[in-house]
Design goal:
Number of domains: 2
Largest sheet: 9 strands, mixed
Helix content: 25-40%
CATH architecture of the largest domain: 3-Layer(aba) Sandwich
CATH superfamily of the largest domain: Zn peptidases
Structural class: alpha/beta
Distance between the termini: 42 Å
Shape: elongated
Mean pLDDT: 96
Radius of gyration: 24 Å
Low-confidence stretches: none
CATH class of the largest domain: Alpha Beta
């Protein structure tokens, strides 16, 4: 989608549709809606009087202009209660508008970053662009003939106040980069596992590196053997697909500056291994690499935005398959840092590959480190599809993550890592077990990871409850959500402006 910013009045736009917004109660006397209403001889006001426009959340009413202004259509979009309004409400409303106008055949759309919305011009522009792009998203790669080929190809933000134009332009640029990074991650997680193998994920990462000028490296099985990554290789041994440890580096700051580490789980298909999953829902396990996609997408965006920090993204990529050579329950493997792990359940494989990836991050001297993973079903029980879970050994770092998520309109909730939970991972035959039972499953998984990141400042994000959606709602469609990408981008930009102390 082509995104542009234009100086002028919204009513003068020749886009195939323009969007105006109203809060619950539908006051048409202020903002861009007042300007357009006057140009339409009060048509919108009359719709309000007749009860056809109320301003309810995500309500959409199409008005044909019949030549009274250059654009043939005006979409009057409800935003709901003004007291509940924020950037995420705007994103969700614009997502509804994007799908509505695509169905209406509007190839070009214009809107104003309206001051009456009460948002800063850059934040408003960013939310508008993110809402339109994320709501417009569809995954059609494997459809021979999509039922509906119509698309919005152009979005223009029209700004009447010249003093606001530069801020609107910057917000629109950041929104486009962030949203397109999110849709890239969605594409990866929606891709079938017979297409997106570990090798293909590495190739997609290489393409990103080439496009954005990143350093690219892939560790092969032999490299991992030399490093002692038995935990990672134990998971990989059941698959015919070779494992890959993908490493991307962005250098936007001085060489001596700290390097943010982003580690993402890259299980391109998870059968559960010998501890095989139930068949119901197993097809969704093609998306068990969503964390890996998130961190690649985030470093891609930070490079595009020329963030002034150093970032390294690490993605351990493999399949988790059953078979004669597969890892067995009861096996013991040694991680890169020398700790031995009793594999009680082969379906708790994500933490095994992350254990070695986190050790590798420590070896590289990365700090702080954030890992992202569709790690546990338990997080869905705890938080549903509303928020992702966070666990940390550094509260100051978590607070920065929380602020980054809030700015993205993504919800995160911190869970504790009390020492008492570690007892559940005690093993009689190894240093640690890979599962601690049903109770506090997300917490014990994080405590397991903590053994391998040790004292490096670290936050673990468990996105298993929010990475997939089964209904269309606001910026989310059926399938992969890309949740976490924009939080990571915001975190990187925040650390670039104000590094962690210490």
């Amino acid at each position: 989608m082509q995104i542009g910013v234009q100086t002028g009045e919204l009513k003068d736009s020749s886009a195939k549709a323009i969007i105006v917004t109203v809060f619950d109660g539908a006051n048409t006397s202020t903002g861009a809606v007042a300007e357009v209403d006057r140009a339409l001889d009060g048509a919108i006001s009359r719709l309000v009087e007749e009860g056809d426009v109320a301003g309810k959340s995500k309500e959409a009413t199409l008005v044909h202009t019949l030549g009274r202004i250059p654009s043939p259509r005006v979409l009057v979009l409800g935003l709901g209660k003004s007291e509940a309004f924020d950037g995420q409400a705007l994103r969700n409303a614009l997502a509804v508008a994007a799908r509505y106008l695509r169905r209406a055949g509007a190839e070009s759309v214009a809107i104003s970053a309206d001051p009456s919305l009460g948002l800063a011009p850059d934040a408003c522009a960013q939310a508008i662009v993110e809402g339109i792009i994320l709501g417009h998203y569809r995954y059609l790669v494997h459809k021979k003939e999509p039922e509906d080929k119509r698309e919005i190809r152009e979005l223009t933000l029209v700004e009447a106040d010249a003093s606001r134009v530069e801020a609107v332009r910057l917000g629109a640029e950041r929104g486009q980069v962030s949203a397109e990074a999110t849709t890239w991650a969605r594409d990866m997680a929606n891709e079938p596992a017979n297409f997106l193998t570990p090798s293909e994920l590495a190739e997609r990462a290489r393409q990103v590196a080439q496009e954005q000028g990143l350093e690219y490296e892939v560790l092969e099985r032999k490299d991992m053997e030399e490093l002692g990554m038995e935990a990672f290789l134990g998971v990989a041994q059941g698959s015919q697909q070779p494992p890959k440890l993908i490493v991307l580096r962005y250098r936007g700051a001085a060489p001596e500056a700290k390097t943010l580490g982003l580690v993402g789980k890259g299980i391109t298909f998870d059968s559960g291994g010998i501890s095989i999953k139930p068949s119901q829902g197993m097809h969704e396990m093609k998306a068990d690499m969503a964390g890996g996609a998130d961190v690649i997408a985030a470093i891609r965006a930070l490079a595009q935005l020329k963030a002034k920090l150093n970032v390294t993204a690490i993605v351990p990529a493999t399949e988790n398959m059953p078979g004669g050579s597969a890892q067995r329950p009861g096996d013991v493997v040694r991680a890169m840092n020398g700790k031995t792990i009793e594999v009680v359940n082969t379906d708790a494989e994500g933490r095994l590959i992350l254990a070695d990836a986190l050790c590798y991050a420590r070896m590289l001297g990365l700090s702080p480190v954030v890992d992202v993973a569709t790690l546990t079903g338990a997080i869905s029980v705890a938080l549903g599809k509303v928020a992702f879970g966070a666990m940390t050994n550094d509260d100051a770092l978590f607070e920065r993550v929380r602020q980054a998520a809030e700015a993205a309109g993504e919800k995160v909730w911190q869970l504790p890592l009390f020492e008492e939970y570690k007892e559940k991972l005690d093993s009689e035959v190894a240093d640690i077990k890979n599962v601690g039972g049903r109770e506090a499953g997300s917490i014990t998984a994080a405590i397991f990871l903590k053994e391998f990141i040790e004292d490096t400042p670290w936050v673990h994000l468990d996105v298993a409850g929010v990475d997939q959606h089964d209904e269309v709602k606001g910026i989310f469609l059926k399938g992969s959500s890309g949740t976490g990408v924009r939080t990571l981008i915001n975190l990187g930009l925040s650390l670039a402006e104000r590094p962690l102390s210490g």
